[in-house]
Amino acid sequence: MLHSIQPGKHGPFGEPMTHAVQACVHCGFCLSVCPTYAELGQEMDSPRGRIVLMKQALEGTLAWDAAQLHIDRCLGCLACEPACPSGVSYHDLISPFRALAGSKFKRSATDKLRHWLASQTIPYPSRFRLALHAAGLGRAVRPLVPAALQSMLDLAPPSVPPAQTWPAITPARGERRARVALLIGCAQQVLDPDINTATIEVLVRNGVEVLVPSAQCCCGGLAWHSGDLAAAQSFARRNLAAFPIDVDAIITNAAGCGSAMREYHLMLRGTSDEARADVFRKRVVDVALFLARLGLRESPTGPGRPQRIAYHDACHLANAQNVRREPRDLLRAIPGVELCELTDAHLCCGSAGSYNLDQPKIAAALGEKKARAVLATGAEVLATGNIGCLTQLRTHFAKLGSNLPVRHTIQVLRDAYNPRAKQG
User: Fold this and answer.
1) Where are the domains of the chain?
2) Percentage of the chain exceeding pLDDT 90
3) Mind giving me the DSSP string for 311-361?
4) How far is CA 134 from the centre of its chain?
5) Taking a C-beta distance cutoff of 8 angstroms, is the pair 331, 409 a contact?
6) Does the predicted TM-score (pTM) go above 0.85?
């Protein structure tokens, strides 16, 4: 019976997980939107199948290791949530389950090493930058690198852009319309720091004062989605303390980061910080949504010619934050832009945090399909709202022999304000 899970048995996560399991009526509407079910064709690699596995593991009728393969294969893209007629909160189940399973799943030595390397580098910009430079050396001696770690070499970009820094406060241009604090991210600072520069430029141009808190850190999403609850909670608490309360919003420009910060109340459930986290997460707003609500005070001029732009929905922007229309509206505000929609737009590109490190074959298959769908539109540029998606699709365009530019939505908008300026 679906109600046979005992909420109190699994600590503070028991209640939300029980509700999520109870809501599922196994109708199968999630099957058609699940990337891993589409790729693998197995019931246990669908949301419905995984819910059964998680329920049985929580009840003690199935060994945790028996569920591990299929739980590990879940992208956490949450495409199942908007497709579900019963309103199953899958996000209340998958990450808490992984947090509980962290000490129960058996990992090989190389898997543990890969997870440790990712956790000790990606959330820390200076370490991550060094790691990417070291990847160049690793490629030179690739045969000596363990197979389980070679996915890291494959995903490392051939070069790293110069580091950028941002003022603690950038005043609004003209009359101030709002005051916000910006999360600058960890991986994004290294892989494409211009996204933060563009974000500040566009916000300031539209009358927004931008604060960049110096004590901020990784959003905690990487740890949260990989089952490292202690690290996720540590990052969350640091950001709760770092971000000021006297701002109109906490702005994010990476879908995964925004989604993670909006789950701080779940990460910190049952702790003395839960109430504060619940207030905090309601103030977290993606930059596209914030600008759409505020309204553009100054219209972009555009490139002065028609331009075809394809838009890719980052899963944790569209599914986790329900932000779909607003980025498209910002792009359509640029004169001459023709927005191109993708075939199977709901399917994940395969990035999903560290997923392309842990499940490289599935991630590569999804990445290639997404890249081909973009190229089929004939667009001149691809816009999206998440650094993981940008990195994944740049990699797969290169593999397909395409140099199609991949830009953050906010970079495209910034460039449209400065059509004669050469942007990085």
Assistant:
1) 2-101, 109-155, 169-293, 299-417
2) 73
3) E---HHHHTSS---HHHHHHHHTSTTEEEEPPTTTTS--S-TTTHHHHSHH
4) 25
5) yes
6) yes
